[in-house]
Amino acid sequence: MSTVRPIQRPAKGYLETMLAGQSQLRAIPLAWINALRAQALGRLDVLTVPTLRDEEWRFTDLSPLIKLSFQPVRSATDLRAADIEQFDLEEARTRLVFVDGVYAPHLSSTLTDGGVMVANLSAADTAQAATIEPHLGRHAAFGDNVFAALNTAFLQDVAVILVPRNVTLVAPLHLLFIATQSETASYPRCLLVAEFGSSVTLIEDYVALQDEAYFINPVTEIALADRAQVKHIRVQRDSVKAFHLADCAVSLGRSSNYQSVSVALGAQISRYNLSVLLAEGAECVVDGLALIAGGQLADTHTSIDHAQPNGASRQLHKCIVGGSAHAVFNGKVIVRPGAQRTDSNQSSRNLLLTGKAHVDTKPQLEIFADDVKCAHGATIGQLDSEEVFYLKSRGLSDSVARNLLTYAFGAEIIERIPVASLKHRLELKMLEQTGSLP
Amino acid sequence: MIDKASKTLLEVRELRATVNGVEILKGLDFTVKSGEVHAIMGPNGSGKSTFAKVLAGHTAYEVTAGSVRFEGKNLFELAPEERARAGVFLAFQYPIEIPGVANSQFLRLTYNTMQAQRGQEELDPLEFDDFVREKMKLLDISPDFLGRNVNEGFSGGEKKRNEILQMALLDPRLAILDETDSGLDIDALRIVSQGVNQLANRENAIVLVTHYQRLLNYIVPDFVHVMEAGRIVKTGDKSLALELETRGYDWVAAERQAAAVVA
């Protein structure tokens, strides 16, 4: 039975306005990119902005967003290296910087060496373009995903990372997306292709220079060939007035390994869809932390799809919710028929700091194989009174004790970030935030 | 050590306390002077740990009657953290694990809180590191305690040693050790006891809550008390502990009943 939805005029109007600037995009010399844009535009003719009636969006009300239709920046903000020094990560020698979605070559240091490419799409040569084509737009499906389609329609600058067979990049790669202009829209795009046996650490970092409202709609695609290893750190520290709606699609080849830590601190409304598809013997660790307060909403939807046997997945997602904020976690784990001996463990742990804070958590196991080991669990609670008492019995005041425990709850995720300077930065940020949470 | 010049640190009178509406402490009297070491023994459920937690200010226990004065002050007017700052220390029977917080960070935070209270200088991380390492050497504690998270993945013995390290840093006037010996092997027991002995002096006092006489071979008490059904029913010197070890607790109750009949 199909459900007929009424046509949502206002939402449609929103998309039309959002797309107003799309026709002014430069055509790209690569015909298949222009074709991708056209396909995405075609889908946007049909798709509408989801409402609370859509199962996948039933906790996240986008009505504040659709009142505002922002356009991409008209003229780029002139930033110098000194303006963004605070975001430097000493371990990362290669950094691509995008200002309001536009690639900023003068702030970036690319890497093209021995077949490695870490650069904007426009720098790709014919061979590189041939490597990119079968991946870009192929992992993050936009057929039914209005925001992935919107991003694809605006496809222009793309952070491209190609790591050839058996190459190990020791130093992490830093993708820095800086928002500077209020009431603008940006469509960051990233593609990472890790060939057979290669290894790389990627940091995707969303920051703002001011506390302004803007719309940011990133799409990231990560393809791991057999035996590749990718560590992926995603930090969303946008302005607390921003709207951040993101998709990330990861495809794991046989015996490959993907480890990710995603941290959501900013945005008025944020949504992160992460989908991970595992081939035979592939392993993933997918950890997340949302630390929000005030009137923020942070929604994380993950899908871990064991399509073939002998895969393993681990997931620990935590939310710390203060003020009247609202966190959403929906974690789907799918074990397809034939994906025998899958080993999966998922845990959602949530800390509510106030009576008005709110969490909706929904672990979802869909198992179609019989010889599997799958566990999942969710907890929602306040700080443990025994732990608070222990700290107070050592002389710490009630508020210091609570802040320390709140910090510790989040630090368990931050500790898993394999880049020391970023970890330290986030620990300080978290101290600051847990100190000021009510 | 019993000393004529000693001052009364703790004075408990007719203390009654309940947990979830059930009365556990039923009119307890107990006095501790500076320089003294007390052992409180007694069967399971007699109220020993409850007494320790009531003194530290645990909110699960409701005091319904009686008084506790610590250095002349009404202890019940102080919040748990104020009691700690005033010099009351409880070594937990089950120390809490705090993943995500480095032990060094936690120890420095508590130490500096106490220093501020005493009007003394707080230490920065480097200064504190030197200071705490000295203390750890004294207590034969491995330096890797500092880098690990608070009690996370610690063995039972390591957790207890970490409690004694905190006691060494906070330098309390009254230390209550709640079954610090349980779960310790002989070597760990010896090390923990040596640590406690080094910390005992004329100015402070130690209350050991224990099930077993063996701890008292290492930390020699001035007084041994037997607790039963929420009251101290017998007090003696260290020989009482030996007697309890060989005869158990039943004879104490029998003796009381006999005394009651005579009366």
Features of the shown structure:
heterodimer, A: alpha/beta, 2 domains, 12-stranded mixed beta sheet, 8 helices, 22 strands, B: alpha/beta, Rossmann fold, 6-stranded mixed beta sheet, 4-stranded antiparallel beta sheet, 9 helices, globular
Descriptive overview:
The complex is a heterodimer of chains A (438) and B (263). Chain A is 20% helix and 37% strand. Chain A has 438 residues and is an alpha/beta fold. In chain A, strands 3, 4, 5, 7, 8, 10, 11, 13, 15, 17, 19 and 21 form a twelve-stranded mixed beta sheet that branches. In chain A, strands 2-1-6-9-12-14-16-18-20-22 form a ten-stranded mixed beta sheet, with helices on one face. In chain A, strand 3 and strand 4 form a beta hairpin. Chain A is globular and about 65 Å long. With 263 residues, chain B is α/β, with parallel strands linked by helices. Chain B folds into two domains: 8-95 and 173-262, Rossmann fold; 97-153, no CATH class. Chain B has helices at 48-56, 80-86, 103-118, 125-138, 156-170, 186-199, 215-218, 238-247, 250-262, and strands at 8-19, 22-33, 37-41, 61-70, 73-74, 88-91, 98-102, 149-150, 174-178, 205-209, 223-228, 231-236. Chain B has a six-stranded mixed beta sheet with strand order 6-9-10-3-11-12, with helices on both faces. In chain B, strand 9 (174-178), helix 6 and strand 10 (205-209) form a beta-alpha-beta unit. The two termini of chain B are 35 Å apart. The model of chain B has no long low-confidence stretch (mean pLDDT 92). Chain A binds chain B through residues 384-387, 389-390, 392-398, 400-401, 404-405, 407-412, 415, and chain B through 56-60, 79-81, 83-85, 89-90, 92, 95-96, 98-101, 106, 109-110, 113-114, 117, 166, 170.
